[in-house]
C-alpha cells in the first residue's frame, strides 16, 4: 500500500491517516462488529422524537422539500426565504421577504434549460442572498443546509475536504448508507408479504383489514426511523473523535435548542470557515472562465480530464492527475515534473482577489486550507492566490504551509522474513514549486531522515520543497512488529527571519512474518502468457533514443567518446497483472549481462522503457565497438526476469507476471567507439 501522511498533526488520531491502496484503516475493525440485525427486532418507537439525541435528528424542515438538481445554491436560498427556517436562523422579516423575491426570480423558468444552467442561476441567487446577511446569519443558514442534507452531507465534496475524510472512510460511509437502503427495502418487502397474507385470510373483514394494514404501514415507518438512526450510528463509528467533533460544529445545533456558537469554537475560526466557503465558491466559479477552459491553460494542460495530446505538456502529467495533490506524489516519482505547469496560464478573477484582500488574514488562512485539502483544480487556484499574495503572508501562515509537508512512503503491512525489500517514497510541500521559488520572499532547506524501530537508518543531504525519502533495506529484521518514521528538519527563511522546525510522519506500523509461498506471483495460464507475449516488443532502433557518451576531460569538462542509439521496450496493451522485472542485456554469446534498472509497470497501465543504465558505461561502448556491423548495428537479447523483491518494494503491486521474457532488440553505434 502507499500512504500519504501529513506531518505530526495526524499522529494519534485513529482514523486520520490518508491511505490509498490496500490498507485497512485503524478504525475499520470496529465496523466488522456493526449489528446487521433488522431494526424490527428492537423496540419500535412511538415517535421519532424518542430517537433524537446530540448526534441524530431528522430534517428539521421537511416541508421545504428537496430539488437536488438545482444545486447547493437552491438549498441556501430555500432555507433563507422560508419564514420558519429563516426565523430560526435569526433573519429579520425584511431579509426573508427580500430573499423570497430573489428565490421567486430564480424560479422563473426554473425547470427549463440544462442542469448546469439551473445550478448557475441558483448560485447567483445564493450570492445575492448572502449579501443581505451578516456572517453569523450566513453561518447559521449554512449549518441548516447541512442538517437538511442528513447523512448525504458526508458525500458532499466540500464536507469530504473539510473533515479530511480518507478514501477508505468515504467508501465505508457509502457502504453504511447502502445498508440503510437495503434494510428499508427488505422491511418493505417483508411487510408487503404480511399484508398480502392478511388479505388472503377469509375470516378477516374489511374493517379489520384496514386496521391491520394501518398498523403494518406504521411499523414500516417506525422501522425506517430505527434504520435511519442506525446509519448515523455507523457513520459516527467511522469518523475519528476529531472528525465527529468538527462535523458537529459545522452542522450546528438543532433548531429550538441552544443555537449560540459552541464555546470551544473560536470566533476567528468561525469567520475563517465562512470566508473559506466563500473563497471555495469563487474559485470554483473561476474554474469555468474561458481563460481556464482555454487549451493552453494549466487546467487543461495539467489538470484536465480529457486524454492529453501525445507530446503535449500534459502528456507528462498523464499518470499524475488523480483528485488531490497527495496523489500526484504517490503516482509519479519525478516530482520535478510538477514544475512544468508554470509553462501554462492560470486565471483567478480580479473580483476573487478583491474578496481576498478585503478578508485578510482569514482569506489567506482559507486559501492555505484549500490548497492543502481541496480537489486538485480548486487547490491549484488556491495556490495561485497564495502565490500572488505571498508578500502578505504572516510567518505563522508560512509555517502552516511548510507543516503541510506530506510524506508518501510505499510500504506494505507485512513482509516475509529474509526477503530483501527496499522501502522508499517521496515527500513534498504541496505546490512548493509555486510558493518557494523566490528566496527573497521565502526559502527553505530540508534534511530528511528515516527511523526504523526508533533508530536512524538513513539521511539525505539538504534539499528544498521536495525530497526523496531515504531508502530503508529490509530483510534482516526479526519476525514481529516494527515501525518506520520519517522526520524532516526544516529551516525556513521569511525575509530576514529564520524559523527552524520538524515535520514528522508519525510511526508507521508493519510486520515481518514467516516466509511463505509468493502470494504476489500471478497464476500462470496460457491466455496470460499469450497476452503478455503479444504486448511486449522492442521498437525498431530507428525509433530509439540517441545518447552521447563522454569521459571527464578535467576542469569540469567532458570529452565525447561515442554516440549511439538505444532501443525502447514497449508495453502496448494494459495487462491484468503488473510487471516487476530485472532487465539484463546479452550481446551475442556473452556470459555476463549488462544489467539495467528495473522495469515496473502497474497492472492496467502501458509503458515505454529506455534500455539504458548509467550513461557512460564503458563496457557497453566496448561491446558495441567489437560487434557493430557496417551500419553500426548490434543484435542483442533483452532478458526480463520477474523479481519478488522488486514486486514487494513497489507497494501498489498486488500481482505480478512470474515468468521470464526474452525480447530481441538492436543497438546502433553511430560514431566513436
UniProtKB/TrEMBL annotation:
<feature type="signal peptide">
    <location>
        <begin position="1"/>
        <end position="26"/>
    </location>
</feature>
<protein>
    <recommendedName>
        <fullName>Secreted protein</fullName>
    </recommendedName>
</protein>
<keyword id="KW-0732">Signal</keyword>
Amino acid at each position: 500500500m502507499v500512504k500519504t501522511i501529513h506531518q505530526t498533526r495526524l499522529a494519534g488520531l485513529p482514523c486520520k491517516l490518508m491511505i490509498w491502496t490496500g490498507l485497512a484503516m485503524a478504525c475499520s475493525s470496529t465496523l466488522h462488529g456493526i449489528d446487521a440485525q433488522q431494526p424490527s427486532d428492537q423496540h419500535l418507537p412511538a415517535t421519532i422524537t424518542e430517537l433524537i439525541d446530540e448526534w441524530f435528528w431528522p430534517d428539521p424542515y421537511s416541508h421545504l422539500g428537496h430539488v437536488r438538481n438545482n444545486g447547493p445554491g437552491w438549498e441556501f436560498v430555500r432555507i433563507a426565504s422560508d419564514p420558519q427556517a429563516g426565523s430560526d436562523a435569526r433573519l429579520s422579516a425584511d431579509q426573508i421577504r427580500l430573499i423570497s423575491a430573489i428565490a421567486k426570480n430564480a424560479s422563473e423558468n426554473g425547470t427549463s434549460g440544462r442542469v448546469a444552467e439551473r445550478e448557475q442561476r441558483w448560485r447567483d441567487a445564493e450570492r445575492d442572498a448572502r449579501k443581505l446577511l451578516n456572517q453569523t446569519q450566513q453561518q447559521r443558514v449554512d449549518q441548516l443546509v447541512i442538517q437538511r442534507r442528513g447523512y448525504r452531507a458526508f458525500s458532499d465534496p466540500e464536507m469530504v475536504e473539510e473533515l479530511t475524510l480518507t478514501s477508505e472512510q468515504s467508501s465505508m460511509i457509502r457502504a453504511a448508507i447502502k445498508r440503510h437502503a437495503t434494510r428499508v427495502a427488505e422491511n418493505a418487502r417483508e411487510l408487503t408479504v404480511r399484508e398480502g397474507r392478511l388479505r388472503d385470510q377469509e375470516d378477516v373483514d374489511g374493517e379489520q383489514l384496514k386496521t391491520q394494514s394501518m398498523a403494518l404501514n406504521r411499523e414500516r415507518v417506525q422501522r425506517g426511523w430505527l434504520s435511519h438512526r442506525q446509519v448515523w450510528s455507523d457513520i459516527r463509528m467511522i469518523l475519528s473523535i476529531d472528525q465527529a467533533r468538527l462535523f458537529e460544529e459545522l452542522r450546528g445545533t438543532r433548531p429550538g435548542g441552544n443555537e449560540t456558537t459552541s464555546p470551544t469554537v473560536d470566533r476567528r475560526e468561525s469567520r475563517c470557515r465562512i470566508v473559506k466557503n466563500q473563497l471555495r465558491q469563487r474559485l470554483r466559479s473561476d474554474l469555468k472562465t474561458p481563460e481556464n477552459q482555454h487549451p493552453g491553460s494549466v487546467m487543461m494542460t495539467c489538470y484536465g480530464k480529457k486524454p492529453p495530446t501525445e507530446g503535449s505538456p500534459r502528456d507528462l502529467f498523464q499518470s499524475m492527475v488523480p483528485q488531490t495533490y497527495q496523489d500526484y506524489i504517490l503516482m509519479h516519482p519525478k516530482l520535478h515534473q510538477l514544475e512544468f505547469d508554470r509553462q501554462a496560464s492560470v486565471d483567478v478573477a480580479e473580483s476573487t482577489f478583491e474578496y481576498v484582500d478585503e478578508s485578510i488574514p482569514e482569506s489567506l488562512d482559507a486559501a492555505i486550507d484549500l490548497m492543502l485539502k481541496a480537489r486538485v483544480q480548486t487547490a491549484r487556484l488556491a495556490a495561485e492566490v497564495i502565490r500572488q499574495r505571498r508578500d502578505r503572508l504572516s510567518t505563522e501562515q508560512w509555517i502552516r504551509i511548510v507543516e503541510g509537508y506530506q510524506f508518501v512512503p510505499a510500504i506494505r503491512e507485512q513482509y516475509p522474513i529474509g526477503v530483501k525489500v527496499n522501502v522508499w517514497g517521496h515527500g513534498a510541500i504541496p505546490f512548493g514549486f509555486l510558493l518557494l521559488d523566490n528566496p527573497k520572499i521565502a526559502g527553505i532547506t530540508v534534511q530528511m531522515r528515516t527511523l526504523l524501530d526508533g533508530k536512524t537508518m538513513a539521511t539525505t543531504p539538504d534539499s528544498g520543497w521536495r525530497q526523496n525519502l531515504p531508502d530503508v533495506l529490509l530483510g534482516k529484521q526479526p519476525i514481529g512488529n516494527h515501525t518506520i518514521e520519517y522526520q524532516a528538519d526544516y529551516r525556513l527563511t521569511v525575509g530576514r527571519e529564520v524559523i527552524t522546525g520538524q515535520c514528522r510522519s508519525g510511526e508507521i506500523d508493519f510486520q515481518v512474518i514467516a516466509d511463505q509461498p509468493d502470494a504476489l506471483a500471478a497464476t500462470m495460464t496460457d491466455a496470460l502468457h499469450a497476452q503478455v507475449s503479444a504486448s511486449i516488443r522492442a521498437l525498431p532502433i530507428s525509433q530509439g533514443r540517441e545518447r552521447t557518451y563522454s569521459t571527464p576531460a578535467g576542469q569540469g569538462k567532458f570529452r565525447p567518446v561515442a554516440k549511439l542509439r538505444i532501443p525502447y521496450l514497449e508495453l502496448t496493451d494494459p495487462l491484468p497483472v503488473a510487471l516487476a522485472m530485472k532487465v539484463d542485456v546479452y550481446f551475442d554469446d556473452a556470459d555476463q549481462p549488462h544489467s539495467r534498472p528495473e522495469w515496473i509497470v502497474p497492472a492496467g497501465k502501458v509503458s515505454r522503457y529506455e534500455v539504458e543504465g548509467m550513461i557512460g558505461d564503458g563496457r557497453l561502448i566496448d561491446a558495441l565497438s567489437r560487434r557493430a556491423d557496417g551500419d553500426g548495428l548490434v543484435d542483442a537479447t533483452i532478458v526480463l526476469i520477474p523479481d519478488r523483491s522488486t514486486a514487494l518494494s513497489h507497494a501498489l503491486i498486488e500481482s505480478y507476471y512470474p515468468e521470464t521474457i526474452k525480447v530481441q532488440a538492436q543497438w546502433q553505434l553511430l560514431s566513436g567507439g
